[in-house]
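G.,

No rush on this.
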Amino acid sequence: MVAPTGPIATSDFASTLYPWLTQQSEAILNRLYSSPSTCLSIFRLLPPLPRQLLTSLLWLPESRPIPMADLAAWLKRGAEPRKRVDEAMGVLGALHLAKERGGVVEMNAKFRENMRRALTGGGSHRSFGVPSDSADKHYTSIAQLDDYATEQWETMLHFMVGSTDRARPSVGVLYLLEKSGLMAKPAKNSPLLITSRGFQFLLEDVQIQLWDLLLQYLSMAEERQMDLVEVLNFLFMLGTLELGRDYSSDTLTPTQQAMLADLRDWGLVYQRQSKKSKQYSRRFYPTRLATTLTSSAPPLLTSSAAGADKTEQKGFIILETNYRLYAYTSNPLQISVLNLFVHLKSRFPNLVTGVITRESVKNALSNGITADQVISYLKTHAHPQMHRNNPLLPVTVQDQIRLWENERNRLKDYAGTLYSDFRSPADYELVLNYAKQIDVVLWESAAKRMLFVTAEGHQAVREYIMRRTQGGGSAVGTPGPG
């Protein structure tokens, strides 16, 4: 099967996934490169110059290595071609796609073989999915798939902001939200609440949100006894499938079969469930959320306002100097997000009014949301009319939000160890200077001959004192309780 064509991945996708890939071992990457669909997906995430070099190297005979110096000749003159080639080779080397050896460039043989196969077709690798061999009696249209993906994705986002308008997400989704740090329980038996990281998550583009969750899912592979390479290969395969086409699940590995249940909950795939037997169909449809995983095509949803109309996407918030806020939106998700830090007063068909108060901001801060995140959200969604102002938001409101945060953060507690009972100022200075050298001092008092060091630095300071004592020096202080 010839690889499906599609737009190159966005820089957001590359910046999210590329660092994770570079942390993987060469053995894992070579296993990934055994799949043509994975090779194509990774090729899409590369910056333009590494892609160009890889394309040029791809079709050259393996018996004819290219000198490193010749690569610079492939570029247009100017802008230090050798430096640009070195930077591009650094990217390719980090992914073990190509490397310099003995002055010549060697391309990864496994990647070369399967990238060629992805572009020309052939073989029985089935890495681009196996379409169902019979017509689906319960055919699902693209519009239905879009509605399903939107519903599943919005259900998760609504739960994160505390909205009760939607059904509760599945246990698997809740576990992933907690494991990824997007939500947390303040106490053992308390409900999940959004965290600072979770609020930042709401401000991101949907494709970045997806990969944030998927990378966390990958980190749980070993815990769930799943093959990491099979998990990632399946995700890359989904990014190359055709929207609106049904595929057979019979050819999937047991790990990938188990993944279908998780991906259904997020809205990446759709499987019809029998009303009688409650069993799921042996065919599945990838939704737009899945087919755009490794491309720049729009993923159906907007960053933090799934389902928002074009007017709302341009900005819908007007904020006055008296802290009154007017939000021209009827989107339940946007209203739920505002409710995290605004005291809402009234609601009309396309307008919500409220006031930013000390209590409403304190409630947001107690959930881990920072003042800068609140201000960033207001700026991101400011109404076009607000853009006539300079600065965009009233300075008095911005300053007051930060002051309310400072009130909450006036006192901070640190774990550590207090050292006292130094026999002489010289002994105190010796230990203090050593603790400062390793940057573990939290507090010091020369008058009282006391210092407080971090919990991480306690062992090092203690060992320094013991070496001084055993070496014939004075007993230079004793640690108090941590």
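When you get to it, here's the other one too:
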Amino acid sequence: MPPDNPPGSQLLEMHHKMKGEIEKIINSENKSQELLKEAKNDLSVSKRAYSSLESEFLSLRTLKEELEKQRDELLGQVKPNRLVVLIDGDGAIFNLDLIAEGQNGGHKAASKLSDAVMQHLPGRNSLQLWVYVFLNRRGLSDTFVRVSRLSANIARQKLDDFIVGFNQAAERFIMVDVGNAKEAADAKIKAVLEVEVRSPQTECIVFGGCHDNGYATALRSFITSGLKSKIILLQSYDEIASGIKTLDLPTLSIPGLFLPEKLNNLVSPQMVHSELPTPQVTPVPLPSATIGKNRQQGKSQVRAETSTPEFTANASCYQPPENPAGGRKVDYSLPLWQQKPPACHLFYFSPGGSAEVDELRASAKKIPCSSMLKVRLSGYYW
């Protein structure tokens, strides 16, 4: 009997098995190659994406640095960097002794103001100090002439020199003449106050206008807006205006820098003259010789002499005693308006005084006497 499985069949069967295994290996290799190719493609795409992201990252990082720089600059601008002193020079009048020193007095006033503010606000030496003073120079000049012992020209020159000295004391110290328009200084001060108190760059405002109730409404508005902590009152007069006193704001007082009281009780010769009634002058008859002479010289001269007669002093009108009983000497270390007791008019109108008194007496003689006018003696001057 022949065998069931001849030797050739076993070899053939092994051959088929090996062929199947080889085909599986080849197919697996092909799939691996395809997967490798896909992986390479994905890697290439990823590299390009990474390169793009890296470039975008660098751009964003540069933009971030620029934005941070801008942020720091803006924070520097918003951060408070200055202190502002705002003074109404028509009410807060500087000490007359400082004004009398001219430029040197202006330097002293600026230095005293700066030192007092920085001592009142310690730890702020790095901040800029801005000082604004708004005033009516002509009105203040007239006041200084009235209350000082100096002549008009010298007094006005001293005030001008004082303003120059104050402005030259520091580059941020500004004293401005706003003219003699009504409330001109008030309008300027309110405008600057509105801007500075709301500015984030201004840490604090020292306000020298607490003598005037007209500022109370504006200050109350700032307090309502939550800005009370930025306002300090700079006291000039001994008494603060009632409307501002009720605001309960912190106060800074600088002894010797401002006048402690108002000067409203002082009246200029021009004001006195304007308030007096116009004297009724009775024309004085001219001698015939004078008339004839005037006719020869022309009608214009006659009209000038008859229409505007000159007034002359009459010794019989008033004879002051040489040494008034109980009279006092003037304390020349004090202004006239600070004399205690108040100086007697008789002293100034009596002969034999000093050069300043003589000058004052000469000026007084130019003013009509109201008492004499009432008793119809208007044809005489003092």
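The radius of gyration is 47 Å. The longest strand covers residues 128-135.

Enjoy the weekend,
O.
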